[in-house]
Design a protein that fits this description.
Radius of gyration: 40 Å
Helix content: under 10%
Distance between the termini: 123 Å
Largest sheet: 5 strands, antiparallel
Length: 536
């Protein structure tokens, strides 16, 4: 074999095509196959509009792994290339590809497709399919004491796109997914619970916060507010709601009253409770202000006249004080005082028609109604705050003193009292009519009562029949004319005051043993919403 022939045998990658026309040159072609690349255009839309800044990850032939991001027109542009508008053809080898598109706060969507040789393919990826947003309903706020399991339930959440005209037994899993296996937004796909607020000392964490179940258990460990966010998604859109857990013990102590007393009154203006007058071995004109938000006390201007067993009413940012008695006015005080917190001053504005103490008073519209008084007087006097004048009403059916009164749903309820310990009467100020109601389960006087969540709560007092103080708590429902017994106070007390705020009832001062000079510096908050009541 000659040298020229041996060199020809060494050519492995070239095929020689010979033609009959000797003037045509030889053509050399590589043995590896040559394919025409495919062209791909990807566009992402949401609710029919271009979706910008959406990251796309493309994986496929020859271990390709490229990153793209959509421009202002929604078209996929390779990362690093600046093209804010218009489409761009992406040249790819034929084969199968996976595109992963992730929109913020949505489930990741994956699309699989095949490109053939020379294909020109445009993929429009719709992230929403024009679906409605699901509705997250985290449930009602919860009142619960510490270390008590709370079940959060989102069963009220729903997806407006869930089919209503199809029998549920006919709905298969395929109905809720598109051709690429992604959720199509016609049902809720998942729930995400997040603890977004808790007390500083709490160590609570949410386990299994992302779930396909609508309920979740949490155990608050310390007193305070817990806010939990619930986010639901249908795979395309999401919606959030917040539920609050008010975690407190039924009874909690607050900063003590700076000067112990009983026989006082207390009235609320804005976020402060004003504790007025009373008795501590002598009659008092002292007034202390309790700041609810920061649990602190301050001293404000004193009354002009020392008072005990009086009535105070707050109205349009001012406090009005009626009656009472002291060592000089033993049978009752007639002067009415008004307190202006903006000026921190007291002034006498009127005189009562009848001196009285150990009576009760309530506000209806712009008028103060005064009921009874010492020695069982039956009189009902009315003071018009707007016109500064006095009126009379029909006498009570029975005389009362050392009782209480509360207004609820436009009606007054006069409760208990010395020698009328179990009696309850309803009074309609519009018609001047009295009706007897169901008796107190525990007869009492020198108690206190307050309206909270459409019920009247009666606490403490003294029992003439039992000859001792009372720590029982009972609630009256005017709609049912029924009483319930609740968790009792930690100890017996009487001549104390009560004020209701959103979170519960403040109980301030009082006497531990009436007439035994044991005055109290109590300042506690009682939360009826945490108590399971026993109905009589």
């Amino acid at each position: 074999m000659n040298k020229k022939k041996r060199n020809l045998n060494k050519i492995q990658a070239v095929a020689v095509i010979a033609v009959t026309i000797t003037t045509t040159p030889l053509i050399m072609i590589n043995e590896e196959p040559v394919f025409t690349k495919a062209s791909l255009i990807m566009k992402v839309v949401t609710d029919g509009l271009p979706a910008a800044e959406i990251p796309i990850k493309l994986e496929g032939a020859n271990k390709l792994n490229l990153g793209y991001k959509t421009n202002k027109d929604g078209y996929a542009i390779p990362v690093g290339i600046k093209q804010s508008r218009g489409l761009l053809e992406i040249k790819l080898d034929p084969g199968s590809y996976n595109a992963t598109i992730k929109k913020k706060k949505s489930i990741t969507r994956k699309i699989t497709f095949y490109l053939g040789e020379g294909d020109y393919r445009e993929k429009i990826i719709n992230l929403s399919h024009f679906n409605h947003s699901p509705k997250s309903v985290a449930g009602d706020d919860v009142d619960s004491p510490p270390l008590t399991p709370v079940i959060l339930d989102a069963k009220g959440s729903f997806d407006p796109d869930f089919p209503q005209d199809i029998n549920k037994s006919e709905l298969t899993e395929d109905y809720f997914y598109d051709f690429s296996g992604n959720p199509n937004g016609k049902r809720i796909e998942g729930f995400r619970w997040r603890l977004i607020k808790k007390p500083d000392k709490s160590r609570v964490v949410l386990k299994k916060a992302v779930t396909t179940k609508s309920s979740l258990k949490i155990i608050p460990d310390v007193e305070g507010i817990y806010d939990i966010s619930l986010e639901v998604t249908d795979g395309l859109k999401h919606h959030s709601d917040i539920v609050r857990i008010n975690c407190f013990n039924t009874i909690s102590n607050r900063r003590k009253l700076p000067f112990p007393r009983g026989g006082h009154t207390s009235s609320i203006i804005n976020d402060s409770i004003y504790v007025i007058g009373g008795w501590n071995r002598s009659f008092l004109n002292r007034v202390d202000r309790y700041h609810i938000q920061n649990d602190s006390w301050s001293h404000v201007a004193p009354l002009n006249i020392k008072r005990n067993h009086h009535v105070s009413i707050s109205y349009q940012g001012k406090i009005y004080v009626f009656g009472g008695h002291n060592s000089k006015q033993k049978y009752g005080i007639v002067e009415v005082e008004q307190y202006d917190p903006t000026k921190n001053t007291w002034k006498i504005i009127s005189k009562m028609q009848n001196p009285r103490y150990s009576f009760s008073g309530g506000l209806h519209k712009n008028k103060v109604y005064l009921f009874g008084g010492i020695n069982g007087v039956k009189k009902v006097d009315v003071y018009d705050l707007f016109f500064n004048r006095w009126e009379n009403r029909k006498d009570m059916p029975i005389g009362r003193f050392r009782h209480s009164v509360n207004m609820i749903n436009g009606l007054f309820y006069i409760i208990g009292g010395k020698n009328t310990e179990e009696h309850v009467h309803e009074y309609c100020p519009e018609n001047d009519i009295w009706i007897e109601k169901k008796s107190l389960p525990t007869p009492r006087y020198y108690h206190s009562s307050i309206v909270f969540n459409d019920r009247i709560y009666v606490t403490g007092g003294h029992s003439f029949k039992q000859g001792q103080g009372i720590n029982t708590v009972e609630a009256y429902d005017p709609r049912k004319n029924s009483w319930k017994s609740l968790l009792p106070l930690p100890f017996a007390m009487d001549t104390h005051s009560m004020n209701a705020v959103d979170s519960g009832i403040f109980i301030i001062g009082g006497e531990g043993r009436f007439g035994k000079t044991l005055v109290l510096d109590t300042n506690m908050i009682y939360r009826p919403q945490f108590v399971r009541a026993r109905e009589f």
